[in-house]
Design a protein that fits this description.
Elements lengths: L1 H21 E9 L5 E16 L3 E10 L6 H6 L2 E6 L3 E7 L9 E10 L4 E13 L5 E14 L4 E16 L4 E3 L1 E3 L3 E6 L6 E16 L1
Amino acid sequence: MNRLLTLALLVLGTASVASAADYRELESSHKLVAGQSIHVDFHSGDLEIEAGASDRVEIEVEIECKWNHRDCEDLLADVEIKWRSSDRRLYLEVEGLASWRRARVEVEATVRLPAQAKLFVEMAAGRLTIDGPTNDVRVDMGAGELRLWMPESAVEGVSIDVGVGDAKFRGKSDYLSGRRSMLIGSELDWDDGPGKARIDIELGAGDATVWLD
């Protein structure tokens, strides 16, 4: 029994060391000046964007190699959160994700931002969820799944263009499924909202859905 317990502890210890080398967390924040829009550049993975009450933009990133790869620790070390600020825009970029074609890596990130800020997201691939903003939202995404929730009272219009896949919209009293383009693409427009915000989504391939409540 003692030998089995010792062996089990050794295995657990080895696993802890390995997971420490294959896993990394990053956090950062930046004040958003009044009148600035926020531009998020996120290459790939799972990205969740939430509206918050603070005047700061906050980001948390978790990255993990899902199999032993000799370069994993170096790859994780290369990831950085970068900020650039001008009078009208705050740029947030997670650098270092594009080089991971050689390794199986999972990336999960959460961004919290002021609800009233204008939002632009550029993303290559993955899963994108946006919840709660009240100003303009623009998304340019290569491939994946996009889900967006906003209060209908804040929105004037919605435009969704999907190259290959489906576009859907659901409001309090309206439901639209995108018009098919050459049997593979889908696009829709809705302009009956009482608010001022515009939602503009371009997705190369995948599914995009907007809910207004």
